[in-house]
Amino acid sequence: RTVHSLRAQMSTSGSLRFNNIYHKRTVGEFRLNDHGVKWRGENQSLKEVSIPQERIKKLEWSAVGKRFQLKLLLRREDENSNQKLAYFQGFRSHILSEMSKVIKEKWSRDVKQVKISTKGWNWGDLNLKSNAVQFAVNESRAFELDFATINQTTCSKNDVNIEFKDQTVPNDHEILSQMRLFIPSIDEEESSSSSRSSMTAQRFTDALTDKANLGYEPVDLVTSFKEVFLITPRGRYQLDMGRDIIHLHGKTFTFSFKFKNILKLFLLPTPDEHRLFIVSLREPLQQGQTQYPYVIMRFAEDDEIEVALNIEQEEIDANYAGQIAQDMEGPAYDILSRVFKALSGTKVFMSGSFESSSQQKCIRCALRAHDGFLYPMEGSFFFVHKPAIYFQHHEIRHIEFMRLGGKGSSSNDTRMFDLVITLKKPKRDSVSRKRESVFSFTGINKNEYKTLFEFLAPKKSILIIDKEEHVDRLSSTLGAGTRSRGRPRGESDAYVNRVRTEREPQKSKQDDMLDDDDDMSSDDEEFGLNETSTSESEEYESRSEASADSDSSYNEDDEETKKRKPEESSSSSSSSKRPKNDD
């Protein structure tokens, strides 16, 4: 490990300057003068930290490893400010005398030396200060947790679980993401006869939530949805929706995220008469090592509720006209999606014009060992639920239909096929947390081959491997099947004819599309999506003008699909009597 040299310089004005001082894991230059403290990172893109001496309430000096740390206890700038502590570390021991002298002369303050416990004990006393949680062993500080670094805390019996906010660090660095404290329970007689505190795990959790401002004020509560079933994170939760934040309260864990963290909203039907409401997050929820980039809720289509919103009518008329009302009733998925859309200002996207052989908006398949539903939409694919994977068409390098059967194929190959999607750039899997670029959706019923190919083939942004072979396969299959139903010999399917006319220009562009990764590059975040996609299905707002009880408003085809239907009438008539898929 490289040891950086540390030097202090005294300028003519009497200020101190130290190099190689760390602040929030970043090295930089630390300055101390008459006006206060300044820190500037070596990376010029980082914001300079400037703290006037009037804001500094106390100064503490303590050992951190082989170096020393200067902690500043700050006064609040205003009532809404949460910054109370500032840490600078990397000082050598002999700097203390020189720094204390300057601070005494210029600020008329003393630097307090704090003794750190080095016994290595894992039991001691918990103290809640005004700005941090302190753990002490024999009245010597072992460690402290700044309130500003805590994301949330939950309680389960005697365990207190503290989760920390995500930090941007290099891949080879390790960070503390979670800490669990055990607070033993004691009876009243033991508490009265002992000097031990009567603090229980639940009381400590409530006190920490209050002091660290992890909760919310009751006046901020807009409405609550009780007993909502979530697929991820799994369990039944109570949704408390505030003006700018949502709290998910479960039996074991509690999650929170702000509306500005919402990237997209989806409302998708399932074959078993349920609706999935999916919240895509910019920064995923985290429980230990598990991340949840999507919050997936499931509702029965016949589940109806009544909700009262804690919003004045004047505010509704001014900001949410036509979206929500003070008193709402109807299907649970409809009410929840409308409230989410209004408060977050985010569009709700729905399934497009695709219909499977059994008239569903999705197809059943498996991703690795997990069974789920794949939703082919107008501009994207969405697989739910484990792992939930979303990618738009412009992120796809190519698509390949595999295991379609032939000579030497097994009986299973004649009943099932696979859809392999290869992306231009790897995407992280929320379950394995590995970056992958090839996703194989297996076990798709053979009845879906024609419907899926006909949906994907006209889309110019998607390259299908061996597209002409699939056209010939469908042409021969349809020709044999439709002549017996009255189609004259030699008359081919209208859709196949149209694809054949497009085959040559499409074929000439295949190689260019494979290599041109930058033409449709995406600025999506790791788990993110583009802000809008005009090619996707109509958003919820345009379809919700009808009554909330009308399911037809959720399944209307867009105009482009309606124009295409006359051309596909012959092929659709030939498949109208196909047996439904039992899956």
UniProtKB/TrEMBL annotation:
Job of this protein: Component of the FACT complex, a general chromatin factor that acts to reorganize nucleosomes. The FACT complex is involved in multiple processes that require DNA as a template such as mRNA elongation, DNA replication and DNA repair. During transcription elongation the FACT complex acts as a histone chaperone that both destabilizes and restores nucleosomal structure.
Cellular component GO terms, alphabetical: FACT complex
- Which residue ranges are recorded for the region named Disordered? 475-583
What is its subcellular localisation? Nucleus; Chromosome
Alphabetized, the UniProt keywords read: Chromosome, DNA damage, DNA repair, DNA replication, Nucleus, Transcription, Transcription regulation
For the biological process aspect of GO, one term held by this record is: DNA repair
Do you know which SMART domains this protein is assigned to? Answer: Rtt106
Q: Which family does it belong to?
A: Belongs to the SSRP1 family.
**InterPro entries (alphabetical):** PH-like_dom_sf, RTT106/SPT16-like_middle_dom, RTT106/SSRP1_HistChap/FACT, SSRP1-like_PH1, SSRP1/POB3, SSRP1/POB3_N, SSRP1_DD, SSRP1_sf
- Source domain of life is Eukaryota
Matches recorded under Pfam families: PH1_SSRP1-like, POB3_N, Rttp106-like_middle, SSrecog
Please note every region of biased composition (Acidic residues): 513-528
| Comp. bias (Basic and acidic residues) | 499-512
Question: Under what name is this protein listed?
Answer: FACT complex subunit SSRP1
Q: Kindly give the CDD domains that the UniProt entry links to this protein.
A: PH1_SSRP1-like, PH2_SSRP1-like
Occurrences of domain Histone chaperone RTT106/FACT complex subunit SPT16-like middle (ranges): 360-469
Gene Ontology molecular function, alphabetical = DNA binding; histone binding; nucleosome binding
